[in-house]
Amino acid sequence: MSEKIRIAFIGCGRFAKHFVPLFKAHPEVEKVFVCDLIPERAQKYSEVFEVPIIESFEEAMKSEEINAVAIFTQRYSHGPLVIEALKNGKHVYSAVPCSISIDEIKEIARLVEETGLTYSMGETGYYRTAAIFCREKFASGEMGEFTYGEAQYNHDIRNMEGSFKSSGGDDWKKFAGIPPFFYPTHSTSMILSCLPGVYAKKVCGFGYKSVTDTDIYGTEGQNFYGNPFGNETLVAELSNGGVMRISENRNIGWKCPETFITQFNGTDGCYSFAVAKHFFSRWNPECNTKVIMKDVSKMLLPEGVMNALEKDYEDGLQQIADSAGFFDMSPIQDASRLPESFRNLRNGHNGTHHFIVDDFCKAAATGKLSPTNIWEVARYSMPGLVAHESAMQGGVVMEVPDLGNPPEKFEMLDPYAFEYNQGNTK
Length: 426
Ligand SMILES: NC(=O)c1ccc[n+]([C@@H]2O[C@H](COP(=O)([O-])OP(=O)(O)OC[C@H]3O[C@@H](n4cnc5c(N)ncnc54)[C@H](O)[C@@H]3O)[C@@H](O)[C@H]2O)c1
What we know:
Layout: E1 5-10, H1 20-25, E2 29-35, H2 39-49, H3 57-62, E3 68-71, H4 78-87, E4 91-95, H5 102-115, E5 119-122, H6 124-127, H7 129-139, E6 146-154, H8 157-168, H9 172-176, H10 185-192, E7 200-209, E8 229-238, E9 243-249, E10 259-266, E11 269-274, E12 277-283, E13 291-295, H11 297-300, H12 303-311, H13 313-321, H14 353-366, H15 374-392, E14 398-399
Parallel strand pairs: 1-2, 1-3, 3-4, 4-5, 6-9
Antiparallel strand pairs: 6-10, 7-8, 7-14, 8-9, 10-11, 11-12, 12-13
Helix pairs in contact: 4-5, 5-15, 10-15, 12-13
Bound molecules: nicotinamide-adenine-dinucleotide.
């Protein structure tokens, strides 16, 4: 018998509030519950969003009514909760990152294969306009063979303090000192999602030993991870012979745009980005001595941001620094595949939230794999986890484990080939 999604939010902190209205409005979702270790937070969510409270994660596991969870707990805590939820027969939507342990990632993949349940990680990087653009151009063959790509997530710790303070209490700095590469997926996803089946074979990592936030980063008990690095960078050799450079920076004096590709280069064409301008250049197939260079910013920036830049470039730049366009989609993001019920709902992270929720719901409803399924997410996560080890050892080259492509029994979701309200087949 088919059933719709009845999902419990685990964690009612600063981020989950952007997602409750979307899950509530999705045609495949019948009911949304909320819970938090801090009861007042769940109470507040319950009142604001008019959803029932489930007492705890453990109660959600026991509930026969709840068939899915949305994990919005702190970044270091997802792995064990995901594993427990899958063991209890629940579909899992998880905020990033997947897990900070390679063994847990392997276990999540094993459980998804065994149960056929959905695991989908809410990776905003996958749905960012630059990633969409490079995926399309690479898939069309216009870029030729992949040679080199670089992406980064630049988010200064001073812009993130609120997040850690809100749940970390007196120990917030000990949580905040988490290695940047325990959270690598915003940047790795942007390069690897353009290269189907490709993974990092070897990495070497380097870290910047923070000299300013020495009460957060350091090896003398400043944080729970013995992590001295505020910034981490890796270079990876990819399975297709290409090279990828990834940086996760928290001592960077920079906030917006946070997640971006700087370059994505093929043998025939290149995408490049600089703060407010997106370019695509390519050998002119008509005449091999000329290069076509296009400014593709209009496709990749929200209309409001584009208008601001055209009106007054300096002012437009400042608006970008102040997070202009954070909530808006850009022309390259195709909203036609989204449910009508999302139309007037608030979005986030440059128009990515609607797509993330829709893909999870469609995947859970069909048993097909979302683009950010566990096998793909393992490839986004593991290079960072290994590169942190490498950085701690001064940059030694290390092999990265790979879980392979999804097992053949799974089909990939086509978000366009879906009729809403078909019910959950699991
Ligand atoms: N771009 C992005 O994708 C993006 C942006 C922001 C945050 N995030 C992710 O969202 C997640 C949440 O971030 P946040 O800023 O809201 O954190 P937060 O600390 O504000 O909220 C986490 C909440 O989870 C609760 N919690 C912890 N363990 C629990 C349990 N076992 N049962 C019930 N509740 C529990 C805490 O009490 C807290 O209220 C993080 O994993 C973060 O990485 C992702």
